[in-house]
């Protein structure tokens, strides 16, 4: 298992226009605690789409493991790069409710 302490942030400034910003962590909104955690499995070289209505920002522990792209209307496309696992956080809604995902890339 591979794990890095740094977090890369993906700021979703506008729907359908993803932007990577490393090293700067957004200030959490009050009550922005993780309420869910599920496992997302994606095959290396392919993609998986998550539907997250009201998505406002995304953070992935290691962007070298999976690519993240907001395709619009609350859809997050995850592309597997390396067969290993990492953590993914997604904030959504006007209260910036945070959800955590265990992202597993398989061969």
Task: Please give the structural blueprint.
Layout: E1 8-14, E2 17-22, E3 34-43, E4 47-51, E5 55-60, E6 66-72, E7 75-80, E8 85-92, E9 97-106
Parallel strand pairs: 3-9
Antiparallel strand pairs: 1-2, 1-5, 4-7, 5-8, 6-7, 8-9
Question: Overview of this structure, please?
Answer:
The protein has strands spanning about 10-15, 15-20, 35-45, 45-50, 55-60, 65-70, 75-80, 85-90, 95-105. Strand 6 (about 65-70) and strand 7 form a beta hairpin. It is built from no helices and nine strands. Residues about 1-35 have low confidence and may be disordered. Helices cover about 0% and strands about 60% of the residues. The strands form two sheets. It has a six-stranded mixed sheet with strand order 2-1-5-8-9-3, with no helix packed on it. By secondary structure, the protein is mostly beta strands. The protein starts with 7 loop residues before the first strand and ends with a strand. It has a single domain (about 10-25, about 45-105), classed as Immunoglobulin-like.
CATH uppermost class = Mainly Beta
Structural class: mainly beta
How many beta-strand elements?
A: 9
Largest sheet, in brief, is:
6 strands, mixed
- End-to-end Cα distance: 14 Å
Low-confidence regions: 1-34
CATH topological fold name? Immunoglobulin-like
The H-and-E topology, N to C, reads as EEEEEEEEE
Spell out the key features of this protein.
single chain, 107 residues, mainly beta, 6-stranded mixed sheet, 3-stranded antiparallel sheet, disordered N terminus
Q: Could you give a short description of this structure?
A:
With 107 residues, this protein is an all-beta fold. It has strands at 8-14, 17-22, 34-43, 47-51, 55-60, 66-72, 75-80, 85-92, 97-106.
């Amino acid at each position: 298992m591979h794990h890095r302490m740094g977090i890369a942030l993906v700021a979703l400034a506008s729907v359908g226009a993803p932007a990577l910003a490393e090293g700067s962590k957004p200030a959490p909104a009050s009550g922005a605690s993780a309420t869910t955690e599920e496992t997302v499995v994606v095959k290396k070289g392919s993609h998986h789409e998550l539907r997250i209505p009201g998505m406002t920002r995304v953070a992935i522990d290691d962007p070298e493991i999976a690519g993240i792209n907001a395709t619009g209307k609350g859809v997050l496309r995850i592309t597997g790069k390396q067969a290993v696992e990492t953590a993914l956080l997604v904030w959504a809604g006007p209260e910036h409710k945070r959800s955590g995902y265990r992202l597993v890339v398989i061969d």
